[in-house]
Amino acid sequence: MLDHENKAAAPGGPKTVPRRRTWSRLSPLLRLLILTQLAFNIGFFAVLPFLAEHLGTAIGMAGWLVGLVLGLRTFSQQGLFVVGGALADRYGVRPVVLAGCALRIVGFGWLGYARETWAVLGAVLLIGFAAALFSPAVESEVARQAVCWEEAGRGPRTHVLALFTVAGQAGAFVGPLLGALLLAVDFRAVCLAGAAGFVFVLAGHAWLLPQHIPGRTRVKGGGGVRALLRNRRFLALCCAYGAYLLAYNQLYLVLPAEVERAAGSQAPLAWLFALSSLLVVTAQLPVTRWAADRLDLRRCMAAGLLLIAAGFGVVALARPAEWTGTAGLGPAAGFVVLLTLGQMLVAPAARAWVPDLAADGRLGLYTGALSSVSGLIVLAGSAGTGSLLDTGLPPAVPWLVLAAIPVASIALLPRHEGPRQGRSLGHQPGTARR
Q1: Is 9 helix (H, G, I), strand (E, B) or coil?
Q2: Residues 285, 163 contacting (CB under 8 angstroms)
Q3: Distance from CA of residue 210 to its chain's centroid?
Q4: Which is nearest to 228 in space by CA: 354, 346, 411?
């Protein structure tokens, strides 16, 4: 059964397999996909953190143009996830992943040599679209395999998705370190190293990724988007997930301003980001296991959103005191810790919920739409969030407003419905869905 709120995750329910051997019991395909996420993020984050400085200093772009380039990269990636997911449903995982890797190789190589504005724009659009191809394909197949894992009685699907999250975060942690070492040569060396990494990823997937993954059915194009737009429960999940992403995005908007106020510079930001990454790498699996024994998917996301709201609340309570120095950084550190703990609950639960809400054979489309729709929410909400900092309101008010957003989004989370028979993910007829 796909009903996560039944025995697999119920408190006091029957225990499943021993947990410390989750990785060793994964199928070769799941291991490949999880390691894929690690490799993708190492290559990507070896380049991305240094892009803005390269564009502004080495190429001499104006600040507004640098922002435009970075915004277009985000749009070509997050905004087009739904396209990549639909293509994975139509043509299968393998060709879409291989095409994405090939485009990423070309994009990184092009960026390393690009000096004109048009060339930089073309390269970053190609890099973003490459991710829009391979990421939804990989994520949707990991989600489908995680459901198979749960149905086979091996444990909650969130255990598998937590491993996927840890792999991605580990890549995001290692990538900038590798990029910083290569930057001692020049930015071109960073880009070419990223391209070389994706050459190995492409070769590995061409060799190891099956031509046809058992249980995955391909669907004809058309009709899927209309059904998705009528799926109120899925769209409600997208809105709640978008609220989480909007809150998480404040790591790059309101947190730097708070750190600058407290410390007089943004130097401590690097340590706070490292703290967030290390928390995910070290604590994601224990947190997911704890939650799987006690919380269904809805309660897990609700708990995560409350933790995120509490993080904003910590800073809001401390702001009237106007602490500076080490004491002033304490609330910011508390915000990062609570936000990261909330992320550990929300992200795997949201990914685990998508298969239960997706139409048959459309898991790639729905996985991509989760990122695209929530990304649009972040895009729309970021402008309003930024304006909060310029309104002259009491310093605690912006943080209180931001705390209210994840709390309010809990009401958007879909309610549990009884299982619907006769609908499957394409691997078992008659599978029940939420």
Answers
A1: coil
A2: yes
A3: 25
A4: 354
Specify whether the CB–CB gap between 228 and 359 falls below 8 A: yes
Tokens of 373: 């729709």
Cβ-proximal residues to 383 (8 Å cutoff; 6+ apart), any chain:
none
d(CA 277, CA 287): 15
Contact 11, 289 (CB under 8 A): no
Written as six digits, the tokens of 114 are: 């690009």
- The answer to whether 94 and 42 have CB atoms below 8 angstroms apart is no
In one-letter notation, the amino acid at residue 34 is I
What pTM does this model have? 0.79
Distance (Å, rounded) from C-alpha 342 to C-alpha 300? 9
The tokens describing 389, both together, are 């900092």
C-alpha distances (whole Å) from 4 to each of 298, 306, 363, 378, 411 are 10, 21, 17, 28, 20
Distance of CA 348 to the CA centre of its chain: 9
Measure CA of the first residue to CA of the last residue in the chain; give whole Å: 10
Burial of 295 (0-12, 13-18, 19+ CB in 10 A): buried
Residue-wise pLDDT tens digits, 151-170 = 888 888 888 988 998 898 88
Q: What pLDDT does 429 receive?
A: 31
Instruction: Provide the 10 A C-beta neighbour count for residue 47.
Output: 28
C-alpha distance from residue 69 to each of 65, 122, 123, 308 (Å)? 6, 10, 10, 30
Q: How far apart are CA 344 and CA 433, in angstroms?
A: 24
Query: Which pLDDT tens digit goes with each residue over 302-349?
Result: 999 999 999 999 999 999 888 888 888 999 999 999 999 999 999 999
**Cα–Cα distance measured from residue 198 to residue 100, given in angstroms and rounded to the nearest whole number:** 10
Amino acid at 328: G
Element (H, E) at 427: none
Give me the residue label for tokens 């991305």: 48
